[in-house]
Amino acid sequence: MKRILQLVVVALLILPGGKILAQDRTVTGRVTSADDGSSLPGVNVVLKGTTLGTNTDVDGRYSISIPSSGGTLVFSFIGLRSQEAEVGSRSVVDVSMQTDITQLSEVVVTGYATIEKRSVTGSISSVKGSVIENLPLQSFDRALQGRAAGVLVQSNNGIPGGAVNVRIRGTGSINASNDPLYIVDGVQLNNTNNAAYTQSNPLAFLNPNDIESIEVLKDAATAAIYGAQAANGVVLITTKKGKQGKARFNFNYYTGVSEPLKILNVLNSQEWYQLRKEAWANSGNTLPEANTLNNMGRLPANWQTLTTAELDQIAAELPTYDWQREAWRTGKVNNYELSMSGGDDKTTFYLSGSYVNQEAIISPVNFERGTLNVKLNHKANNKLTIENSLNLSMFQQNVPFATDGSFLGNPAFATSTILPHNPIYNEDGSFNTAIAGVLNQNPIAVVAWNSGTQRTNQVVGNINATYKILDNLSLKSLFGLDYRFVNGDRYTDPRTPDGAGVSGRASAQTNWNTNFITSHVLNYSNTFASKHDVNALLGYEYRSETNEQLNGAGIGFASYQFRTIQSAATPENIVSFWTGYRRMGTFGQLIYQYDKKYNLTLTGRYDGSSRFGSNNRYGFFPAVAASWLIKQENFMQNIDFVSELKVRASWGQTGNDAIGNFSSRGLYGAAGNYNNFGGIRPTGLPNDDLSWERNVTTNIGLDFGLFNNRVSVATDYFIRQSKDLLLDQPVLWTSGYGSITRNVGELENRGIELEIRTINVDQGDFKWTTDFNFTHITNKVTKLYGGLEELPGDPSVRVGYSLGTYYTYEFAGVNPSTGRPMWYDANGNPKYQVQLADRRVIGRRVNNQADFFGGMTNTLSYKGFEVSFFFQYEYGRVVADGQYGFLLENATRLTLNTLEETAGPRWTTPGQITHIPRPYNGGPEPRGSGPTTGTAGLQKTDYIRLKQVSLAYNFNQNLIRRAGLTNAKVYVQGVNLWTYDDYIGYDPEWFGSATGIIPQSKNYTFGIQLSF
Amino acid sequence: MKIYKFTLLALLMVASFSCEDVLKVEPRQSIESSTALNSRDNILAATNSPYARLRALSSYGRNLIAFPEALSDNGQATNNSGRLIGEYQNLPGSTFNNWQNDYFAINEINLVLAALQDETVSPPLSATDKTRIEGEMKFLRALYYFNLVRVYAYDPGVSVGASDRGGVPITTTGYLRAEDALAFLPSRAPVADVYTLIYADLQTAIANLGNAVGRAPIYATKAAAQALLSRVALYNKDYATVVTNATEAFNTLGVGAFLSGNEYVSGWRALSNPESMFEVRFAVAAENIGVNESLQSSFTTIRSLDNLRNANGTLNTSSNTGGWGDLRPNAQLRGLLGVTTAGSGTGANPPIAIVRGADIRGSLYEVGPGRGAGAGIECIKFLGKTGTLYMDNVPVIRKSEMLLNRAEAYATAGSPVFDEDLARADLNQLLVARGLAAVDDTLVGSDLYEAILAQRRIELAFEGHRWFDLKRLGRDIPKPVTGGLIAYTDFRLLANIPTREIDGNANLEQNPGY
């Protein structure tokens, strides 16, 4: 049977050739893309009204025989606007084909399938790879910032390739992970940072320029196909594939620099002396001048013979050194890429290689990565297609003194807090190590002497085969691997104060993460009676992951020149661990479309996870969604200004199992060694009933386009309820345990999302488009357990309020007559010293969650020029920035430098109205609370940031063709150029406590892209 | 035909679910708790953890040693690192926090004690092992309850009625099952009940334990249990028990030795203090509390006595500045110790140095290079004596305390064993051993009693006694540096029970004021 079919096909193929004799004219020509002038292979060329036809070859050339009377040729290709050309008497007909935007944008990847956008029933945001192209950001999660409604991206720090906080539609879990599921070409990634000495974002393995598109599945109905893992949304990354045609090469290079975002406005030596002197005097000390000079290590031995004026004079002559500018540097970035793609109708390929080296603004932090990406697609025969994708990546980072924290040697913490009269270098150019003040290390020297690198080698790849069982039934089997090998070393130099006590310390770490996935999906699609489109799939998936680590440290080095662990005289510790989990699920989906107007999607997934209790491993996650394409109705046909109108509604459940691999188990672990004998102790309580945390999301959406889609809008309203939260329920310590993971509590996120795209001007060569997105989310804890109104030990989790609500002491300002800080007591009266009972909810909206966020891009193009501006914004988040907390103390507790913003407005004279109390030596005043207590230490992070500006020029194709190029582009780009905020501190984008975090930077890059 | 293949495949997928093993992943570095203590080796290993918890920062790692000095009238905070300043200023809440660690240890002990009764243990423990383990665990349980009750509750006989909310919760059952742990919502047992349990546990320890060579001072011994009981009885105003147990403990050879003269001073330089009757062992570098919070770092900026000074006699600040030296002896304590400083480095004056009196205990203090607060006299009882900087074994009970316990019991007015001659004899034994003159029989009554307390303060300074000693006697807490005073009735005499424990348990009452 098969053989006969093949013969028929072959016969059909050669048949036109046989007819040549019967014709009397040959028309030839070349079909090119109107976008970039490249040749288009595989275009259908048909003589209108006949069955005569052919396809273009790899060079876009065709040859067709037509009757001598001529006729009209019809050129068609998927994704391009069909075109007709009257042959007339011509024998050469060249055609340039336009991209059909309406057709192209209609395909979205939804996981296990690609569907037309018109069939979408849930809520999906798409970001094209071209939008985030060439940004000097080393992981794509960071590049998503401000690009998609409902997706909040916050920077954890400025380490290139460092951690990023991504929340899709709010924070849905209190204790389990809130990270979305990342999937690259069908392989579910592990995005846990296993690096011990710096932040190595596992998503940095991928060169963002290899990304074709990113789809964010936001509502539960769309994400439910991933059931168990999809509670926090799904981010699908599709990498670039090969395209039919002769081999095309792309070369891309950019280079640039990075500069600090901000230099904190710290006090000079004289201002600090004055501040500190006041602190001593205010605390009743009779020798404030001498004590302050003593704090600064500048008290002369004969001080008792000197007058206060003479002591003041010593201070007046002290120099001031700019430690921040000494620590910050101009970082450089260089990025090189070369890709090649092509193929014929059976086999296509995409090969790319890249190398990037980016320096952070603080020495020695950097990021150096090489990637190799291979994609092959081969149609073995009519039924079997084999595909592979392989990303090999290696990145290496120099490790900072610390990624965060108030360490004396951490330049991100210490350079703004070290006393400014301390010289950085001695006169002979060596490092000054006699540093006065509580920060008695020279952070510049410490960073220069210590060393360490962190290396990540990663393979993410899959091989998959699709077999057409029937014309409309296919089976796709995929085997994927995400393997990561992380190793690192760090050396604390014996010349540094931290290393001196132990004669140097070397540490080394090795971590293996093996993440295997396989899925097998049957896909069926058919159209019945030309009105009923049915698409169904049924699948099975298995994922297993293990993580192993071995690390150790040794101390006692002969000298600083011996820096590797084998030179250590004494091993300090050797640690290893092994952990793992497995998941398994079956799933099914039915998409039904009636008359291209009504869509219905039913999804169900049954999933199991080894992390849960033996009684409750499995969960079922159903979803239903529908949409109505109103514009397709007859009554809409005459309303011309509405070009598109669609309503969507969905409901679905997803699950979260992102807890410890053995959280449901009652275990004894090895701990509590005594006198060199091994100890064991219980490490947790068992919970055999532990099961899935469920997210139930209801989504209503409206999409419309006006004026031939010059304005297109997508809006969504959602209610995301998280139930059976995987909560670390506190257990009384008296029972011997801290907590037990149980399915208790509920919380809710409600939000509005808006994505607007407008074509403001489209006049001849000039085009101006705007993309805007907006998200408003409110979060609320709706239920705890046992009737509790707040979580024991964590009053920021309280029923009826957002997560991260501030339940603390409300600052009442500074008493104008005494200069002492005050807080309101439970009755609203001001007092100096707070007690637990004085705490209150500061406000319904005062919490550490963002209320509004989004971004806006404006792109203007004229002929070859293109300019784009991208702003992002965030509003409504209130944080306690740890760095600011130290600075706000105004050198009262510790001899740290502080800011003009906190020291300047301090209370100095009775009657003065201000918000900064008088300085007082020793920290809190007697029977008073410290100056950063309660809301006094909180700040708003609201900001608008000009995240990206780029100016590009595409050379005229006719010009460059002579140079053998098909495309040439040069561009300049700026990142984080301008920020509007009231924030005191390095960066309002920060997420977390922000103490001593390496800040983000401003970047300027210049690049060139060539295709040939 | 194909449709059958497809159905078969679908069936296979579903079938794989029936196989539970696919989702079974066993941990490799932990074992099931319900069966963990069913072998001899595992039970023996489980006895180490309650000892190890004594190393915790909240226990003898720092807080039980450093806080009593900062909270009371011995220490003065330097504000070098900002640590211990809240305790020194007696800020509400800046106080002990041993609740969690101690109850965790008690649970571990209770689980071991239950396992001793388990007949299915295989291979089984020998009867000798069982007896010893029961003794050691009960010694530790008594120590943990004692530390809890003296931190969170009033001591017997000196309760401030209106503020007294009782002792601390008692549990002698170990918890392994969630439902049991969640159902345990204890209230505070009366102080007397807590003392009854401590007494009973220590008496079992005394009965079960010997004084075998090699166990003391880092494991519980019979003499250590007697020594602890003498201290517990002192807090309990049970003076007869103080005398019997202090006497037996003091007379036991091999468990701590009473040292005098240079031997006493060099004892403080040894890895394990020969005076220790019970000492918490810090064995390997991984157990080090480190540069910020260790006892060495808290009390002194000196890294080592070896190169303390440069050739010209000035302090070697460049390579001998180690810890933070957050707490120093105040002027009052320095006066009692008879130590002062001489020199200033000004002009022709020699560099600053310590001047000591006859009291050999002055040798446990030295001028350190200092940090922000400058050079000054610091306590050097903890000095990285394990060979690892910032890591010292911590003496919990020293032999000398036995003399002080007994002398106080003899000299307390109204004591059933009141005998001033015997009290003076004990006091003189200590005084002479410390290089001081003996007192004669003109020292009587409250003068004698106060002299004994003064010696207790000097002898045990920077060892975690002073706050508890003032508190158990119902005395106000003097703050000599500021001239202030914390009345005994002040709520800060009792530590706050962690809020989470109160929030999660309606039966548990917080101490007043918090």
Write a brief caption for the model.
The complex is a heterodimer of chains A (1012) and B (514). Chain A has 1012 residues and is mainly β.
Q: Largest sheet of chain B, described in full? A: 2 strands, antiparallel
Low-pLDDT segments, ≥5 res of chain B: none
Strand order of the largest sheet of chain B: 2-4
Overall form of chain B: globular
**Strand content of the residues of chain B, in percent?**
5-15%
CATH superfamily of one domain in chain A, called what?
TonB-dependent receptor, plug domain
Question: From the alpha-carbon coordinates, what is the Rg of chain A to the nearest angstrom?
Answer: 33 Å
Number of helices of chain A: 14
Named at the architecture level, the CATH assignment of the largest domain in chain B is Alpha Horseshoe
Q: What Rg of chain B, in angstroms, do the CA atoms define? A: 26 Å
Instruction: List the quaternary state of the chains.
Output: heterodimer
Intertermini distance of chain B: 78 Å
Q: How does this structure look, described?
A:
The complex is a heterodimer of chains A (1012) and B (514). With 1012 residues, chain A is mostly beta strands. Among the domains of chain A are: 15-100, Carboxypeptidase-like, regulatory domain (Immunoglobulin-like); 104-258, Ferric Hydroxamate Uptake Protein, Chain A, domain 1, CATH 2.170.130.10. Chain A is built from 14 helices and 51 strands. Chain A has a 22-stranded antiparallel beta barrel. Chain A has a 5-stranded mixed β-sheet with strand order 10-15-16-13-14. A 4-stranded antiparallel β-sheet of chain A has the order 3-2-5-6. In chain A, a hairpin with an 8-residue loop joins strand 34 (726-730) and strand 35 (739-743). Residues 4-23 of chain A have low confidence and may be disordered. By secondary structure, chain B is mostly helical. Chain B has 3 domains: 40-56 and 98-209 and 488-514, Serine Threonine Protein Phosphatase 5, Tetratricopeptide repeat (Alpha Horseshoe), CATH 1.25.40; 213-281 and 395-443, Alpha Horseshoe (Serine Threonine Protein Phosphatase 5, Tetratricopeptide repeat); 290-305 and 320-394, no CATH class. In chain B, the strands form 5 sheets. Chain B has a two-stranded antiparallel sheet. A two-stranded antiparallel sheet of chain B has the order 3-9. Chain B has a two-stranded antiparallel ribbon with strand order 5-6. The longest helix of chain B has 26 residues, at 127-152.
